[in-house]
């Protein structure tokens, strides 16, 4: 290990700021707010090396023991106080040395006095923004005079073991004029270069508080350390609980998957052949809500969606052929094609299966969408962003001609039809928003109230969920199971699922800020994103991935609505808001 | 779009880390990297090959070994012409799970003639030192024989040992499967001769 990997705390002010004048030229420190901000940004961007972090923590504890009154100082980089962008250069440098009117000597004088006073530093002579450099010095003093710590340091680095020489530490305690021989490292400049190239704590990092916002008065050191320790303990506890929860969830998932697998035979032997009777069976509903065996999804969905439009098997061929003809003659609207490509590009991206360059189902998806556009064109409707998700979900489970019939029929259901209907069905969509609001107010009044206060209407999130039938926001597994029930229960389940999603996000929805709420609902919550990044769980599969909404989590909340949900409430709301259907 | 397919679909299954992606990459791109990056979802590569003087596009479907493809299910396995089972000769666990991978495939894909559906087994990573090997060639061969004489290859994606030969066999078997498949009805209904605009009233549901 090199000298540079010593815990940074031991660097005295001189060391850190010393030019050394030898190998390192012109290390200058700008104490402007911009410079500090960029330094902060740089520091935050680096992860500390594990071992080092520990050492630093130890040292902090030591510091607390020796300087009970010491406080962590705070640099208010946003201070409006006009700093002249003076560069501090170092004692040996011939450059002007001033920091807000204090010469470097004044500075040294200060912390010598401070160290003498041992704590309770009078800040009166400092500018309103305080850089408590005394910390560094007195820490170094405390550190070196402690034999146990000394030995730990000696073991961590032999190069500076002489720094723990008693006489030098004694002289440091007695505040002999710096540079203290025992404390200084041969070349401060070397240290500096090293620091910038590595990710250790810098001098700046030692003096700023990590536990308190910069605009608040500094916290007592003791408290600071205690709070950090408390925080560690809490985080540990929370990670443990999180782990247990995940394990329980995994077990539940496995058990359910086994049950679904075992139900395959029931599905194949008694439900599918006897469809008409089976659908009205109460027992079937329970089975159905648990999820359809993936293998049978295609068949069951097709049957459940039905074919009220009475489309024949050839419809797909004819529509696809018409689309093909339009495509080759160039009469297919290019804006539609553009939207379509964009939509396909965001369809289950992590699956790669619909990827435009190598996805084996890309062509199928595009053909299906083109045919769908053609079949809708007679009604004067164009493309709707999100249709690709519906088509993709169906294609995963059935062949293109079947998927086409299913897609046409599914999107013909009133709620979907309204959301896919463009301007012509705007009133109906508004009615659905009112219905959703009513349900939300009944089930989650606090969230409803917060949304109302900040003008977050269902228009801000509901269409994003409904149009792609949740596929953009939820993981495929969770989504497929929502579809299972959706094809059986119809429109009302769209709303139950949506309420279930809000319920699973509930703890995050009390933000008193419109933009935060909207970001969160769009799956762009910055805090959650950072957490997910840190945990490395991000793959970009869906928008709500960052909230860790997996199948079990979402379904826990959807199932949680069962006792509250009354089908006749839904019927009544529909009759009230949409009397014509 | 509807012409007779000259495309064969090959699915690669096996535990995570046995080298599915590496084998595919070695065969298609003649490249190997020691860095392991777990496949997310699935990965696809195609290669133009000639089998028995026939030009075919081989479409390789590489799966993520660490998860079961619950929801992907049907789309993933449907229409496969050959299934490649990969294990790591230095890990008996990866060999023991071959059974369940085979079952999973047969259940999900439900091929017409499961008894004769072409599988190929690859024992990968034979470049690793001999004393680390956990599955003997004999043990693997016995298993393959018991499952209806599945062709067996010992490969190294790293050293490019046997990779070309293995995929040649895979291609041949897949093509044979297509030929027998064509005797039956296809997954998709028979192509009907299309007369564009023969029925312009379609699309209107009045």
UniProtKB/TrEMBL annotation, chain A:
Ranges of Polar residues composition bias in the record: 71-90, 198-212
Biased composition (Low complexity): 136-175
Ranges where the record places region Disordered: 67-222
Residue span, Rab-GAP TBC domain: 291-490
Signal peptide: none
GO molecular-function terms, A-Z: GTPase activator activity; small GTPase binding
Cited PANTHER family: RAB GTPASE-ACTIVATING PROTEIN 1-LIKE, TBC1 DOMAIN FAMILY MEMBER 12 ISOFORM X1
Protein name in UniProt: Rab-GAP TBC domain-containing protein
Species for this entry: Schizopora paradoxa
Automatic annotation (TrEMBL), chain B:
Keyword GTP-binding carried by entry: yes
Keywords: GTP-binding, Lipoprotein, Nucleotide-binding, Prenylation
Cited SMART domains: RAB, RAN, RAS, RHO
Keyword Nucleotide-binding: yes
Listed InterPro entries: P-loop_NTPase (IPR027417), Small_GTP-bd (IPR005225), Small_GTPase (IPR001806)
Domain of life: Eukaryota
GO cellular component: fungal-type vacuole membrane; late endosome
Pfam families: Ras (PF00071)
Record-level Gene Ontology MF annotations: GTP binding; GTPase activity
Record-linked SUPFAM superfamilies: P-loop containing nucleoside triphosphate hydrolases
CDD domains (UniProt xref): Rab7 (cd01862)
Example GO BP: regulation of vacuole fusion, non-autophagic
Similarity remark: Belongs to the small GTPase superfamily. Rab family.
This protein's name: Rab small monomeric GTPase
């Amino acid at each position: 290990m090199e000298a540079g990997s010593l815990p940074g705390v031991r660097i005295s002010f001189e060391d850190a700021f010393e030019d050394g004048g030898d190998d390192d030229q012109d290390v200058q420190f700008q104490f402007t707010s911009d410079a500090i901000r960029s330094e902060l940004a740089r520091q935050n961007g680096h992860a500390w090396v594990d071992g080092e972090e520990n050492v630093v923590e130890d040292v902090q504890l030591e510091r607390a023991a020796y300087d009970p009154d010491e406080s962590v100082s705070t640099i208010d980089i946003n201070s409006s106080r006009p700093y002249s962008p003076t560069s501090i250069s170092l004692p040996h440098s011939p450059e002007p040395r001033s920091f807000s009117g204090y010469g470097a000597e004044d500075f040294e004088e200060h912390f010598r006095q401070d160290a003498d006073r041992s704590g309770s530093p009078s800040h009166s002579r400092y500018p309103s923004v305080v850089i408590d450099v005394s910390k560094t010095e007195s820490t170094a003093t405390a550190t070196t005079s402690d034999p146990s710590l000394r030995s730990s340091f000696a073991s961590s680095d032999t190069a500076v073991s002489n720094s723990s020489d008693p006489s030098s530490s004694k002289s440091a305690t007695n505040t002999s004029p710096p540079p203290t021989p025992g404390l200084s490292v041969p070349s401060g400049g070397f240290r500096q270069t090293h620091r910038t190239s590595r990710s250790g704590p810098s001098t700046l990092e030692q003096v700023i508080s990590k536990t308190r916002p910069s605009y608040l008065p500094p916290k007592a050191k003791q408290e600071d350390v205690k709070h950090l320790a408390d925080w560690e303990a809490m985080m540990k506890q929370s990670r443990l609980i999180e782990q247990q929860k995940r394990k329980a969830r995994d077990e539940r998932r496995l058990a359910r998957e086994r049950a679904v697998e075992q139900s395959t035979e029931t599905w194949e032997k008694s439900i599918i052949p006897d469809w008409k009777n089976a659908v009205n069976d109460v027992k079937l509903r329970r089975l159905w809500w648990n999820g359809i065996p993936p293998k049978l999804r295609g068949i069951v969905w097709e049957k459940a969606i039905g074919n009220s439009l009475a489309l024949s098997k050839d419809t797909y061929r004819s529509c696809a052929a018409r689309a093909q003809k339009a495509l080759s003659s160039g009469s297919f609207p290019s804006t539609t094609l553009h939207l379509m490509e964009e939509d396909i590009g965001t369809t289950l991206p992590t699956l790669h299966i619909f990827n435009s360059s190598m996805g084996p189902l890309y062509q199928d998806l595009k053909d299906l969408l083109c045919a769908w556009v053609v079949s809708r064109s007679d009604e004067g409707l164009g493309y709707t962003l999100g249709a690709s998700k519906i088509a993709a979900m169906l294609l995963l489970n059935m062949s293109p001609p079947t998927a086409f019939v299913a897609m046409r029929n599914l999107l013909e259901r009133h709620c979907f039809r309204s959301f896919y209907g463009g301007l012509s069905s705007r009133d109906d969509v508004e009615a659905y928003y009112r219905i959703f609001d009513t349900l939300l107010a009944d089930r989650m009044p606090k969230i409803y109230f917060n949304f109302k206060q900040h003008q977050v209407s269902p228009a801000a999130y509901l269409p994003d969920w409904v149009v792609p039938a949740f596929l953009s926001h939820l993981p495929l597994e969770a989504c497929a199971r929502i579809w299972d029930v959706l094809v059986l229960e119809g429109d009302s389940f769209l709303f139950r699922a949506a309420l279930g999603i809000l319920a699973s996000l509930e703890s995050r929805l009390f933000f008193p800020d419109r933009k935060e709420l909207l970001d969160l609902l769009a799956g762009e919550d910055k805090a959650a994103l950072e957490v997910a990044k840190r945990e490395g769980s991000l793959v970009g599969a869906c928008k709500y991935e960052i909230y860790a909404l997996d199948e079990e989590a979402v379904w826990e909340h959807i199932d949680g609505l069962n006792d509250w949900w009354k089908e006749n409430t839904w019927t009544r709301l529909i009759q009230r808001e949409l009397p014509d259907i | 779009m509807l012409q007779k397919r000259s495309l064969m679909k090959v699915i690669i299954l096996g535990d995570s880390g046995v080298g599915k992606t590496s084998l595919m990459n070695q065969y298609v791109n003649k490249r190997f990297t020691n860095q392991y990056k777990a496949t997310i979802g699935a990965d696809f590569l195609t290669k133009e090959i000639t089998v028995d003087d026939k030009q075919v596009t081989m479409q390789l479907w590489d799966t993520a070994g660490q998860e079961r493809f619950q929801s992907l299910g049907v789309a993933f396995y449907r229409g496969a012409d050959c299934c490649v089972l990969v294990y790591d000769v230095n890990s008996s666990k990866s060999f023991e799970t071959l059974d369940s991978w085979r079952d999973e495939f047969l259940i999900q894909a439900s091929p017409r003639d499961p008894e004769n559906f072409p599988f190929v087994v690859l024992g990968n990573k034979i470049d690793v030192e001999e004393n680390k090997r956990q599955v003997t060639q004999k043990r693997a061969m016995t298993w393959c024989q018991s499952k209806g004489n599945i062709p067996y290859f010992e490969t190294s994606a790293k050293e490019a040992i046997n990779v070309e030969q293995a995929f040649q066999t895979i291609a041949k078997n897949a093509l044979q499967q297509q030929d027998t498949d064509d005797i039956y009805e296809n997954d998709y209904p028979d192509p009907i001769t299309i007369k564009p605009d023969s029925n312009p009233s379609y699309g209107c549901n009045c």
